[in-house]
Amino acid sequence: MYARIRRKINKILGCTSGNATLIVALGAPVLIGGAGLGVDLAQWYMWKRELQFAVDQAAVAGAWARTDSETDDNYVARARLEYNANISVTDDFNSNASVQLANYAGGTANSVVVSATASRNLPFSSFITGRQATISAFAQASFTAGQTFTSCIIAVDEDDDGAITIGGNAVLTASCGLAALSNSPEAVIANGNPTVDAGWILARGGIDDWFDENTDDIILENVEGLFDPFEDLDPPNPAESQVARTYTCASTAASTTANIAISTVVRYTYFRGANANNAVAYTYASAKPTTTTPSSLTGQAVVPTMVNGYVSTATPTVTTTQIAGNGSNKIYERKTTTVTSTYSNVVTVPGTIAGNTSPGTYSAIHVSCDTAFAPGVYIIDGGGIDIIAQYEVTGNGVMFVLKNGAYIKIRGGSDINLTAIQAADLIARGVSSEQANLLAGMLVFEDRESEGTSRNDINGNSNTVLNGTLYFPVSNIMFSGTATVTSQCLMIAADTITLQGKANMTTFCPAGSIEDTTVATVGATVRLVA
Questions:
Q1: pLDDT tens sequence across 8-22
Q2: What are the residue ranges spanned by the domains of the chain?
């Protein structure tokens, strides 16, 4: 039986007639199925490509919306608008895009995720599976909102190593930010064993690893967009500041000058009697007329202190002379001369108390006694402001402009309380309101045309109170003492800045105060990450 079956099979296999028909019959389903699958795969690929592009664009659009405070609440609508704008082939059978926030790379809600699907019956795949073909797409875009950075210590040099150098046992716990515009790999460095709590440290170049290892500050290197916030300002030069003055500790008395107009009036009267003592008034036929002789002095003469328009009349001068008659008929002539002085254009120059100063241009101010600076702008041309001894130095509403290599040096145990000029004071001195508002709060302003110097040194004590901005765009400033403030953060902007020795800036900013001077604006970023 089995042998017969085997022979039959061998006979069939050995037959060569009709093979092509059999092969075609057996291969037709595969050929037709392959063609159908190819058509379906082309559809899937087209749907996938369109959906992926649409969700990619939607995620990016939603992320950009989240970077702007004016649109961050509308990110879903913005993403769906972009999604719908990029759908055409699957327009009739895609799902509404799902848009939501997600965490990314350790952040919280710092990315936008968009997903969508497209489902439809296809001739081959649906025939085989009995259900619709579904294509899905997913995209994720991370975002970082734009940031604005402020700072109260700014080094504006563009390429120096150690543009900001903190060394020794310096203590800086102002928490109002450091910024260096230098692109050097060592723009901010630390030497010695300082204590630093600056809040954040920014540099166009690099920052010493010491800060990462020894502080909790935010460290941002290679920051583009750092700038000098005062680079467009010019120092003011009011008329009163152009008056040449000399600092002195000697007092001077007040002086008054005026124009004087002198009028002389001569009046004649007549009497008759036996003697001048008992003579009575008499009408004399040949009486002389009254005469007035005005006289005016040009220029100004020193006069007693008085007000403008003051009139002074001297005691009249009287002379009596017998001119006719005899006996009881003697005739006497009485001449009365009155001199009157009228004062105009009165100018009083106040005296000065020892050490008191007025706005003007000084070659130098070397404080050598208790000194009070009157409000205004002081131009120091070529020399310096030296406060180096045990004196009390005050000034409210002042600005010191340094020119031609001028410097400021504060040392020793002086009691110093200087507060910067404000906008109203500048406007009153002829500075435009626009410039006055920009210059308000500037305590020391070095002219950019000045020669750079390394002589700026603040080594005060706890009685050194400086309220305002110290700006040295072409010079170094060394801080090696203590500065106290009472009304605002002390802003230091200089070409380079050195904090060393026992510099103590624990009271650099009053409690609750913030420094709002912007030094960098970093744009928002969006990145498609999935």
A1: 666 656 655 555 555
A2: 19-145, 149-233+469-515, 236-252+355-446, 255-349
